[in-house]
Amino acid sequence: MSKRVLTTESGAPVADNQNSATAGVGGPILLQDQHLLEKLARFNRERIPERVVHARGSGAYGYFEVTDDVTAYTKADFLGEVGKKTELFIRFSTVADSLGGADAVRDPRGFAVKFYTEEGNYDLVGNNTPVFFIKDPIKFPDFIHSQKRDPFTGKQEADNVWDFWAHAPEATHQVTWLMGDRGIPASYRHMNGYGSHTYQWTNEAGEAFFVKYHFKTNQGIRSLSAEQAAEVVGSDANSHQTDLLQSIERGVNPSWTLYVQVMPAAEAAEYRFNPFDLTKVWPHSDYPLQRVGRMVLDRNPDNVFAEVEQAAFSPNNFVPGIGPSPDKMLQGRLFAYADAHRYRLGVNHTQLPVNAPKATEADNYGRDGYMATRNGSRHDKNYEPNSYQGPAQTDTPLSAPLAIHGWTGTHAAPLHTKDDDFFQAGELYRLMSEDEKNRLVANIAGGLSQVSREDLIEKNIAHFAAADADYGKRVEEAVRALRD
Ligand code: HEM
């Protein structure tokens, strides 16, 4: 076997990778040592901006296989035939901490899937929670500021966390979820994933449906108590990464079964909950789960930076048969992600192998910019329309149009008959066993008792009491016991 030769970036052989070139033995370094200059300069540029949220993550490749016929609801080709398989990449993540944080913390988990379909990449960028803290994207930067490190102390501050929630009664449902038993998953393999938002499916006949995605883990749900998590963080800050990596390396391939809840579009207006409010679920008794297929993860990336750090998921990457709903949060996200990618990775991030389509090719008139590798040939025109057989539009919308009415303006999301900020949080609480309630209350009190201002504590307790009087009373007693 021929010995591999170490080269510079331009491919020239490197004579010495142990000693830099100097003017005489023991003299100063020479500017002509190209290998040294290049090595130091490249090293300085190894980091790119971390994701503004979901900075810590782990990725894996796998496939999706259709097990049930859903063609009555969507014309999406990758869901079009039982047995059809589509390659995919998933990135799991925590949300609030920076790259240097730990995995086993109380925080939602990201669940971002990129399906490399023959009709282009479909990104489903969800979480392990069916709901979210807020329902208008205008609040997102404030929400995240309150949960991440404080600009003065450089630490996460209980005052900021609970001050935001004191002003966001609509967060009570998600806070109850987060402080409950599923708030700290044991690993990425042992949690469910949800699209969380309502999306729109359109079938071949042009009929529209609203859907919610549920990925149920086939490994079973496993979570950590606050005490167990503290121990895990102390022994392996990368516990989720270790678990996912080792499991797939051993050939123990994790899988999830995908279900959807399907609502005919005509039912949306009269449903008892606003179906486009991300702080609400659709009870399964109203819209049962229907199985679609299974997702299997069977390959680890070869390089975490190239394939996980540089992965870019955008809720705006749809394929024919799938589109957005009017959920305001989703609408905000349709802008935010690709904008983040252009800043974090550059305008040509879609040409990176992990992000580029795999089962089809991108073919358009976008050109140039930093790091362009797919820039057309001498025969390709860079404008359209043209007389040279360049790619042309299909005139077929990806999904059905959404009806709109009313006036422009800054409007709160409309309330349906059963909508308020607390009912579903109360339902979740009342579903819990006595032990679960005790742990939930202890987790909330552990955080809330750290808050320095009484008025913020009272406002938060009022939200739990509005969800369920017993819930509020227990939180209040537990907080008082810790503070007295
Ligand atoms: C209006 C509300 C939201 C805004 C403006 C927002 C914005 C962002 C931004 C800018 C990123 C970083 C993207 C990147 O650098 O690649 C991100 C990451 C992420 N967000 Fe959101 N987000 C919102 C709500 C949500 C919700 C509701 C979910 C789940 C249902 C979610 C799930 C994720 C996930 C999973 C990632 C990480 C994606 C990856 O692994 O690369 N976000 N978000």
TrEMBL record:
Domain Catalase core: 7-392
Assigned EC number: 1.11.1.6
Classification via SUPFAM superfamilies: Heme-dependent catalase-like
Gene3D superfamilies, per the entry: Catalase core domain
GO molecular function: catalase activity
Top-tier EC class: oxidoreductase
InterPro entries: Catalase, Catalase_3, Catalase_AS, Catalase_clade1/3, Catalase_core, Catalase_haem_BS, Catalase_immune_responsive, Catalase_sf
Region (Disordered): 1-20, 359-381
Top-level division of the source organism's lineage: Bacteria
Catalytic activity reported: 2 H2O2 = O2 + 2 H2O
Keywords: Heme, Hydrogen peroxide, Iron, Metal-binding, Oxidoreductase, Peroxidase
Family to which this protein belongs: Belongs to the catalase family.
Protein name, per record: Catalase
